[in-house]
Amino acid sequence: MPAQIIDGAAIARQLRELVAAEVSKLKATKGVTPGLAVVLVGENPASQVYVKSKSKQAAETGIKAIDHRLSETTTEAELLSLVQKLNADPAVHGILVQLPLPSQIRSAEILRAIDPAKDVDGFHPINVGLLATAQLEHALVPCTPLGSLILLKRHLGTIEGLNALVIGRSNIVGRPMVQLLLNESCTVEIAHSKTDDLPAHCRRADIVVAAIGKPEFVRGDWIRPGATVIDVGINRIAGSEGKTKLVGDVAFEEASKIAGAITPVPGGVGPMTIACLLANTLTSACRHAGVKAPEWTKAIRA
Ligand code: GUN
Questions:
Q1: Ligand 1 within 6 A of 143 CB?
Q2: With respect to CATH, is domain 30-115 assigned 3.40.50.10860?
Q3: Identical fold at 30-115 and 143-270?
Q4: Segment 120-150, tens digit of pLDDT
Q5: Is residue 70 left, alpha or beta, with left meaning phi > 0 and alpha meaning psi from -120 to 50?
Q6: Percent of the chain with pLDDT over 90
Q7: 217-235 burial string, b = 16+ CB within 10 Å, else e?
């Protein structure tokens, strides 16, 4: 039986609608409009596309997005000074500094300067620590792993006791994904570029999260029949007639014949990332206003 395709675009739309409803409620009850500052340094074309979508979707949800565009030659001190200004601004509930940053700026220094309570990317060491110690009620959780977890729970209901394999150990996806799956009581394995016999690890997994950034790296015959596959990769490769196309980290055609369910690329995890950024901004605005924020993984259950 072919795999069920997990429609990330539709689930992201549902999440954005929920965020929009909560934004209206916060405005009506507390007079607070959630504010999201989006900071882009330089001209990276992919970053420009992401940042534009983030600001557009924020506005559609009723969140006030404030764009800050800085030149490629911005110094670390200049960026730190902007971050400090945003930390102090009560109209700003979320601060996102788009990565990668130009080489003269040390990303870790910038991420550590962001107020953890406004860190809607969840990259500050305080948020990393809160996630690692299961204090989710105080944490802000990185958007791509959070979106991936919502898709998994939407599809599978409970994931307790399942064997999950996370391929990739980045700070943005792999590591926080491991923590989220562990919090859900999965048995979690982490694979990376030095892992021996990756196909064998994959064949034991009920859940595979592929976040390695290598086009179609995970082959269909590595997948355990019926497994759920979350493909975080977004890779642009040569297509037919001189065009390019987007593919994930998983060989979709092969894997979709064997998996129980799989996310497509595009239209899977991608739209969930931005929806979760909006959800995190609302969470932060609720906490600043002293009201309880929704539990997103429960709110979007099937
Ligand atoms: N660059 C690639 N992914 C991300 C992300 O989730 N947040 C930020 N700020 N930059 C990124």
A1: yes
A2: yes
A3: yes
A4: 999 999 999 999 999 999 999 999 999 999 9
A5: beta
A6: 98
A7: bbebebbbeebbbbbbbbb
Q: How far does the centroid of ligand 1 lie from the alpha carbon of residue 144, in Å?
A: 9
Residues taking part in catalysis? 54, 98, 121
Contact (Cβ atoms closer than 8 angstroms) between residue 269 and residue 275? no
Q: Is 98 in the pocket of ligand 1 (CB under 6 A)?
A: yes
What's the mean pLDDT in 54-59?
A: 96
99 lines ligand 1 (CB under 6 A): yes
**115 burial level (CB within 10 Å; 0-12, 13-18, 19+):** middle
Compute the distance from residue 98 Cα to the ligand 1 centre, in Å. 5
Q: Mean pLDDT, to the nearest integer, of 203-231?
A: 98
**Residue 246 beta carbon below 6 angstroms from any ligand 1 atom:** no
| C-alpha distance across the termini of the chain, in Å | 22
Confidence class for position 302, pLDDT limits 50, 70, 90: low
Q: Where are the domains of the chain?
A: 30-115, 143-270
Could you read off the pLDDT of 155-196 as tens digits, one per residue? 999 999 999 999 999 999 999 999 999 999 999 999 999 999
Looking at domain 143-270, its CATH superfamily turns out to be NAD(P)-binding Rossmann-like Domain (3.40.50.720)
